[in-house]
Design a protein that fits this description.
Elements (H helix, E strand, L loop, with lengths): L2 H9 L7 E13 L4 E2 L3 E2 L3 E19 L8 E6 L2 E2 L1 H12 L11 E9 L9 H21 L5 H15 L11 E4 L13 E3 L6 H4 L2 E5 L10 H7 L6 H21 L2 H20 L10 H17 L4 E4 L5 E5 L4 H12 L8 E5 L5 E2 L1
Parallel strand pairs: 5-7
Antiparallel strand pairs: 1-4, 1-14, 2-3, 4-7, 4-8, 5-6, 8-9, 10-12, 10-13, 11-12
Helix pairs in contact: 3-4, 7-8
C-alpha cells in the first residue's frame, strides 16, 4: 500500500460524512514480541508480514451529542450482535484517548465490527481489530479537522493509536512487512509505533503465501495480555530478549536478500521459542493442541523428503501458519490438502498471503 494510494483514499473523505469504515488485516510476526512494559511498549523489537485475507471490517458512525457529559458514548456490535464485553474494553480504550482525539467526548459512536476468521483463537484478531478502529478514528479526525493532510502522518498516528489498543496492531497499518520496537541498528525504529519495511523487501517475499490451518476455533485458555505479563517473572526473559534482537537483524537481511532458507530457520525457531516461554511461565500453560504438533512434525518431514521451502510458524495460540513462496504452490498445496487439512476444524484453512495493507471501504 503506497502512501499515494492512502493519499487518494484520504482525499475521498468528506466533511459531511457521518460514518467511516476500514478493512484492516491481521499480521503474522516472524520475530515475535513477547513481554511488554509501560503503556503498551515492547520488551523486544519484532517484524511481521502483513496479511490479506485475515482481516477485520470496522465501521464507525458518529453523531454530535445533544448533551455533553464528559464520557465516551458507544454502541458496539460484533458480527451483527451487541457485545457488552467488547464494548466495555473499547469504551475504556477510547476514554484514554480523549487527549489524542479532542472530539471523542462530543459525539455518540456506533461501532460495527466483524472478522474473516475466528476471534481469540491465536490469529492476531486484536491486531486487525484495533488497527481498523484506529484507522477509523484517525479518519474521523481528518473529516472533522482536516488533519492529517499527509499520508505518512496519517499512518504514523494510526500505528501509534493502534499500538495503545494492542501492541501487534501497530504493525498492521503498513503493507507487506513492518517493524515495531527500538533496535540500535535499525534506523527510525521506535517503541511508540511501527515503521514500514516494504521498500526493502526482496521480490521473493512479496508474493509469499501464508495458509492458516484452523486447528482449533476455541477461545484461548490464556489471553495474550496475560501471557505478556507473565514474562515479568519468566526466568528466561533476559536471554529471550537478547535472542530476539539478534534474530531481528538476521531476519531483515534475509528479507532484503531473498534468503528463504535463513528466513525459514528463524521463523520456526521463533515460533517454538514463543511457546517454550509459555511452558516456562509461572503458572505454566500450553496453547498448542495435538493437531498443532502433528502438523509441525509432518511439515518438517515433508521438507526433509522434498527439500521444498515449506515452513511453519505459530502465534500465541494453536493454529499453524504455513509459509512458502508463490512459485512452489502447485507442489506444496496438494500435500497441505491431503496431509494437513484433516487436522483442521471442519477442514478450515484460510489461504492467505502477504498483503498490501488496510483500505478504506
Amino acid at each position: 500500500m503506497a502512501t499515494g494510494s492512502i493519499n487518494y483514499q484520504l482525499s475521498s473523505l468528506s466533511s459531511t460524512q457521518q460514518s467511516v469504515a476500514w478493512r484492516s488485516p491481521s499480521n503474522i510476526a516472524i520475530v515475535k514480541y513477547w513481554g511488554k512494559h509501560g503503556i503498551q511498549l515492547p520488551r523486544n523489537p519484532s517484524v511481521s508480514f502483513t496479511l490479506d485475507a485475515a482481516h477485520t471490517d470496522t465501521k464507525v458512525s458518529f453523531t454530535e451529542k445533544i448533551e455533553k457529559d464528559g464520557e465516551v458514548s458507544i454502541d458496539f456490535y460484533f458480527e451483527g450482535a451487541p457485545n457488552e464485553a467488547f464494548a466495555n474494553k473499547i469504551i475504556a480504550f477510547l476514554q484514554s484517548l480523549h487527549i489524542e482525539f479532542s472530539f471523542l467526548l462530543d459525539y455518540d459512536f456506533k461501532i460495527e465490527s466483524s472478522n474473516s476468521f475466528p476471534h481469540s483463537s491465536g490469529i492476531a484478531s486484536s491486531a486487525s481489530a484495533m488497527s481498523a478502529l484506529a484507522l477509523c478514528f484517525c479518519s474521523i479526525e481528518k473529516i472533522l479537522t482536516g488533519w492529517p493532510t499527509d499520508a505518512s502522518d496519517f499512518l504514523n498516528k494510526a500505528s501509534h493509536i493502534a499500538r495503545l489498543g494492542s501492541g501487534s496492531a501497530a504493525r498492521s497499518v503498513f503493507p507487506e512487512v513492518a517493524i515495531w520496537g527500538t533496535h540500535s541498528d535499525i534506523e527510525d525504529s521506535t517503541d511508540l509505533q511501527a515503521i514500514p519495511f516494504d521498500s526493502q523487501l526482496h521480490k521473493s517475499f512479496k508474493r509469499f503465501h501464508d495458509d492458516i490451518l484452523i486447528v482449533s476455533a476455541e477461545e484461548k485458555s490464556v489471553s495474550s495480555r496475560a501471557g505478556h505479563s507473565l514474562m515479568e517473572v519468566n526466568p528466561y526473559a533476559t536471554v529471550r530478549y537478547e535472542q530476539a534482537n539478534k534474530n531481528m537483524m538476521a531476519t531483515l537481511e534475509a528479507l532484503k536478500t531473498g534468503d528463504i532458507l535463513s528466513f525459514g530457520k528463524i521463523l520456526e525457531e521463533e515460533a517454538m521459542t514463543l511457546h517454550a516461554l509459555m511452558m516456562c511461565s509461572d503458572p505454566s500453560y500450553v496453547l498448542m493442541k495435538a493437531g498443532t504438533l502433528a502438523v509441525v512434525e509432518k511439515v518438517r518431514a515433508f521438507r526433509e523428503e522434498t527439500s521444498l521451502p515449506l515452513y511453519f510458524t505459530l502465534d500465541a495460540g494453536p493454529n499453524v501458519h504455513l509459509l512458502y513462496p508463490d512459485e512452489v504452490e502447485d507442489q506444496i498445496w496438494p500435500f497441505i490438502e491431503r496431509e494437513l487439512v484433516p487436522h483442521c476444524v471442519d477442514g478450515k484453512v484460510i489461504r492467505d498471503r502477504v498483503g498490501s495493507g488496510p483500505r478504506l471501504i
